[in-house]
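Office hours follow-up: a student asked to see two folded examples consecutively, so here they are.
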Amino acid sequence: GAPSISIFLKPPGVIPPGGSTTICCSCQRDRGNFVLYKDGRQFRTLELRGSRAEFSISNVTQKDTGAYNCHYLDGGIVLARSETVEVMVQEFHLPKPVLSVLPGHEVAAGAHVIFHCTIVHSSAGCFLYLEGQVKVLNLLSKERDYFNISRVDEGNGGRYSCQCFTKSASFKWSAVSNTLDLVVR
């Protein structure tokens, strides 16, 4: 069958002009190539290293904004296509939020975990990210600035971060919080 492939940004979130990001593509194969597409056009090709390829973009500008996806090729034949990941480049105008987790960084499987993303701004909403995921885990609003996971399992472990924004006439963004590693035993 066709291999399943994944794509994600490292670190996740909106990037400031002049910043950098890495687009990671991975699959369960150890040979072949990944071709990175931006807005439907071929952008770059990389050989697999292990089971992944990493496309680094540094000193980003508005021109780097767009929809990226990976095609996995073996012998010149496209065997699979990833989901699409959006790269957004925006100035940061808000203070950096602080991410915390209760009851702590190491928990037993089945425990109840609460993530808090705190920012000193009256009307900011925040996104919670888990490195390796394409999608945002959750949107945290000022009314509810926490995210519950009622029964954690090993799949909930990983590197988390959050990023906040305000929706006035235009979006204003914060930097991404420091990362927080959750270990599920």
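And the second, which I mentioned at the end of office hours:
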Amino acid sequence: AFNKSLSPSPGAMSQAVAKEIPQEQGEGGSRRSSWGLLVTAGVGGTLVALYAVATPFVTPALRKVCLPFVPATAAQIQNVLKMLENRSGSLVDIGSGDGRIVIAAAKKGFQAVGYELNPWLVWYSRYRAWRDGVHQNTKFYISDLWKVSFSRYTNVVVFGVPQMMPQLEKKLEDELECNARIIACRFPFPCWIPDHTTGEGIDTVWAYDLKRSRGCETKSLEITPETES
């Protein structure tokens, strides 16, 4: 005879299946939710990392005047070095970007310094200087160019934009000594007359000897020694 006690009734089987199905669906939904969170976190983290690394290289840093980072071309670097021939003393690159002008000048024997507001570019510049073996002759500072005095430098390189050149011209004229040479790339200063020009198009470089712009030579001739009465 068939033992009814060992065979569940159809109603009991239906209830058991009904209880199992939601449980399986709940576990599957939970697993899918967990994977979704992991994928979202991974994609979000990757985007944040890419933004942190790439943004400083393609967008303007926070400056008084918008000064975007545009790497110097090989021709521009060579034109700058040409304007530095027969020059000595300290050199500063205002808005040094990724440090390529500073590093090139250091390879020519200058004690070269770069000022850049963007910390990512400064750290990258330091790495490049170390990689190229000139880290002992270079320094890079995270600083706003409008808050720095350039009075101790005799060679100044500027990659500027037209909006900042008039104010920067006045700042440098007030701070620099008469023996300073200022080299402007891409855009000239509005009032000074360049003493030397080389290159063409976006690679044009203008050099200004401050002693002529100020008339220092004329002033020195006008000064006569006092005579004893």
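Two things to take away from it. The chain is about 45% helix and 15% strand. The two ends are 149 Å apart (CA to CA).
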